Amino acid sequence: MGTCRATADRIQCAAAVTLRYGLVLNLLLIGRLKFEDYEVDNIRPLLVASPPFSRLARRYGERRLARFIGVSEILIGALIAARPLAPKASALGSLAATGMFATTLSFLATTPEAWHQRRTEPKLSPAGQFLIKDIVLLGAALFTVAESLRNIRQL
């Protein structure tokens, strides 16, 4: 019995590391893309269909807004990665990621391009398929919040 528990604990530990640093890698790489013109073009339908983001895009411009989002994603990723040295900063980064992924999931409701329009039942379009992965990233962010908070209590 003890071996099974030890094995499960090792697998859970590996899963936690994979979730945390997979989330970090996603945030860093996707944040970096926001500095490319083609990525600004890719996210344009999401930005213009979202009431708060469309206002920000009109006020600051799509390219500047995309770069602000990119810097935010990179900063959030760096904070989450800092857990071994700064669990409070990591918890803050994970909370920010939770808010960010909840926001991007709202694009499923505000972006007409997220759904195939000529179907009798709802079907995700390629844009919707791109967005739906954020449910898993939201779960990873919530997991890393809890893990960081537990680590703070152990200090």
UniProtKB/TrEMBL annotation:
<feature type="transmembrane region" description="Helical">
    <location>
        <begin position="65"/>
        <end position="85"/>
    </location>
</feature>
<dbReference type="InterPro" id="IPR007339">
    <property type="entry name" value="RclC-like"/>
</dbReference>
<protein>
    <submittedName>
        <fullName>DUF417 family protein</fullName>
    </submittedName>
</protein>
<dbReference type="GO" id="GO:0005886">
    <property type="term" value="C:plasma membrane"/>
</dbReference>
<keyword id="KW-1133">Transmembrane helix</keyword>
<dbReference type="GO" id="GO:1901530">
    <property type="term" value="P:response to hypochlorite"/>
</dbReference>
<dbReference type="Pfam" id="PF04224">
    <property type="entry name" value="DUF417"/>
</dbReference>
<keyword id="KW-0472">Membrane</keyword>
<feature type="transmembrane region" description="Helical">
    <location>
        <begin position="91"/>
        <end position="109"/>
    </location>
</feature>
<dbReference type="InterPro" id="IPR016865">
    <property type="entry name" value="RclC"/>
</dbReference>
<keyword id="KW-0812">Transmembrane</keyword>
